[in-house]
Amino acid sequence: MPSRLTPLRVLLLDLDGVLVDTRPVMENAWQQVQKDHGLNVPFEMYERHLGRPFADIMEQLGLADAEAIHQTYSQASTAASHLARQFDGVAEVLHAFASAEWRLGIVTSKPLNRAAPLLAQLGVPFATVRTPNGVGRGKPAPDPILLALVDLGADPADALYIGDMAVDQEAARRAGVPYVHAAWGYGAPGRPTPVVAESPKDLLRLMDAGPLLEGSPV
């Protein structure tokens, strides 16, 4: 079988904390969870585990009845969805990558029913969207990133993954995909220190960059 003449260029992105600022939505929903379920778990404790599937976060927090809590959280998130805002420059950056013939994909731990309206507002065609609604394990397992690459017929070397939590970095490492940390997001990067983008527009430098190695400057 002949090899591709033009290598694919794939940009995979997390959603919360990378494309859309949903912290006000999540904080509002978690307050409702605490009220309805009589919990005394500060939002900051929930927030430090962002990026994992909801059931995994509940396990990390030692909370039982995860399904009922998730139902409350999901309903409250939907009701507060109007509080979400795109990060400045995100839509322009995504359109620039699309115009440069990069294929765009989403790998998020947000359920599809809540992710889809946020993605629709960006007005950009995503070639794949991987959420917990599909098969495989959630982050930090490499499954959703690898499945996104399968969707696109791409190799790990063809892609970059943009995230904002250490769990995103671990998933990318385990998938063999170079990782870029979104400094405007919600978490600090893990080790080894990854490539860091200071703003969405800083990602534009990646369009002309050669192969990115862990720890190399953007």
From TrEMBL:
PANTHER family according to UniProt: PHOSPHOGLYCOLATE PHOSPHATASE
UniProt entry tagged with the keyword Hydrolase: yes
InterPro entries: HAD-like_hydrolase_sf, HAD-like_sf, HAD-SF_hydro_IA, HAD_2, HAD_sf, PGP-like_dom2
SUPFAM superfamilies per UniProt: HAD-like
Annotated keywords: Carbohydrate metabolism, Hydrolase, Magnesium, Metal-binding
Keyword Coiled coil included in the entry's annotation: no
Protein name: HAD family hydrolase
Superkingdom assignment: Bacteria
GO molecular function: hydrolase activity
